Amino acid sequence: MSDPVFLKRTIMKQTLWSEHLQENRKLRIYLPPGYNEILSYPVIYCQDGEEFFNFGRIATLAGRLILEEDIEPFIIVGVEVDVAVRTQEYAPFGNRFRQYLSCFAEEIIPYIEHNYPVRRTPNERIIAGDSLGGSVSLHLALAYPALFHRVISLSGAFYPETQEILAAETDLSWLNINMVVGLQETDFKTDTGVYDFVEMNRETKALLEERGATVCYREKDGKHLWGFWQMELPESLLYFLNQ
């Protein structure tokens, strides 16, 4: 028996040399059903690209949204990361953090926009991440507001350093962020300590709203795992793709 039509998709694998990081960075690129180079598409950029495809099943979810819910076709770019240096790249106190932000905004974005027919306005780019990936996605928007206005955060790891940076902002009225956190994430152990992700996300929501950001926020039963994020990802995607 053949696979359902929504499973038939094109996933490209590309490798980009980064001058900022002085290494290759692997990308996974989802091209939607009916992909046509003469058209233009909204684009979603994902941190932890391999996990978004393998555990988040974002390509399958995208096919369902496009073919079953009549969402406009979109392209997905998953940016892979070496887990050994993930915190160093994604956390604001990491020793590769600034280089990673520069790589993403100044190398990956131009590479994709040169090679694929993605739209080039901040309202047609969505940047998404889980845990520290959600945090670095927000930091990318803060550092490059001309590129990113729309952020998806799945259980964002908004450590005190991130909250301090947010507290120093005065006007975030241009920012639109979709946040979800699991109610069973109150004592999650990370490589830098044990954190209450629920309280951390509540505090970050308040900081964002106080500075004028548009925040769509929800708390659901769930743990700090891809099983939870996979279930919540369609709602987060639809929040922006339906606008």
Which CATH architecture is right?
A: 3-Layer(aba) Sandwich
**General shape:** globular
Low-confidence stretches: none
Distance between the termini: 37 Å
- CATH homology superfamily: Alpha/Beta hydrolase fold, catalytic domain
Give the total of domains: 1
Helix content: 25-40%
* Number of helices in the DSSP assignment: 8
Q: How much is the radius of gyration in Å?
A: 17 Å
Protein name: Enterochelin esterase
InterPro entries: AB_hydrolase_fold, Esterase-like, Mycobacterial_A85_antigen
Organism: Paenibacillus wynnii
Pfam families: Esterase
Architecture blueprint of SSEs:
Blueprint: E1 10-18, E2 23-31, E3 43-46, H1 49-54, H2 58-68, E4 75-79, H3 86-90, H4 97-115, E5 125-130, H5 132-143, E6 150-154, H6 160-167, E7 176-182, E8 188-190, E9 193-195, H7 197-210, E10 214-220, H8 226-241
Helix pairs in contact: 2-8
Short structural description:
By secondary structure, this protein is α/β, with parallel strands linked by helices. The chain contains eight helices and ten strands.
